[in-house]
Design goal:
Shape: globular
Order of helices and strands: EHHEHEHHHEHHEE
Low-confidence stretches: none
Helix content: 40-55%
Structural class: alpha/beta
Number of helices: 8
Strand content: 5-15%
Distance between the termini: 22 Å
Number of domains: 1
CATH topology: Rossmann fold
């Protein structure tokens, strides 16, 4: 049965600085590179056929390190549809400073609601509106052809995919946390239906 593996990029410089990143292109920290390496170690048993990533450096670098660690040279498709949620006016701001400016409750609503976007930005619903059609058009096509697929992307674009694969409601998906550098391994049947889910950690 084909496998679909999702990996959120390793820690970025702005993750470390507690800043809203969105579409701003920032690099991995040394810890982030180590997380990517560990993810590669955890995935050495899977023979991937194709990989997908966003147009942002932190996801691409994570993917490069994973594939190098596994020792795989496979086609890599990069697409903006897999970019992180666009945080609009919040991008670049420290999250504590944003709470001071707009209020704790409002910022929490922007971050954790499904369909309320920050100023000039995207909600999770908006992110899903670009990620899920791309998933259906390309990634699921590979799955239905029996290929093993690796996706290196971002917390919110991956939330959209998790929502689709696990058939979660908007209320359920906003509670889902996707940690950096931790592979989520789905086994799917020939019709793309979920058979098994495994979250891999070092030491498992």
């Amino acid at each position: 049965m084909p496998k679909l593996v999702l990996v959120r990029h390793g820690q970025s410089v702005w993750n470390l600085q507690n800043r809203f990143t969105g579409w701003i292109d920032v690099p991995l920290t040394e810890k982030g590179k180590e997380e990517a390496y560990k993810a590669g170690e955890l995935l050495k048993d899977i023979k991937f056929d194709v990989a997908y990533t966003s147009m942002l450096t932190r996801a691409q670098e994570t993917l490069r390190i994973i594939l190098e660690t596994i020792g795989l040279y496979i086609p890599v498709i990069k697409d903006q549809a897999l970019n992180e949620r666009h945080y609009g006016a919040l991008q670049g701001l420290n999250k504590d400073r944003a709470r001071e400016k707009w209020g704790k409750e409002i910022v929490h609503l922007w971050r954790r609601s499904y369909d309320i976007p920050p100023p000039e930005g995207e909600s999770l619903k908006d992110t899903a509106a670009r990620t899920i059609p791309f998933l259906e058009r390309t990634i699921m096509g590979d799955i239905l052809d029996g290929r093993n697929v690796l996706v290196s992307a971002h917390g919110n674009s991956l939330r959209s995919i998790v929502m689709y694969i696990e058939n979660l409601s908007p209320e359920e998906i906003v509670k889902v946390e996707i940690p950096t550098g931790t592979p989520i391994v789905y086994e799917l049947d020939e019709n793309g239906k979920l058979l098994n889910k495994e979250i891999r950690h070092l030491g498992d």
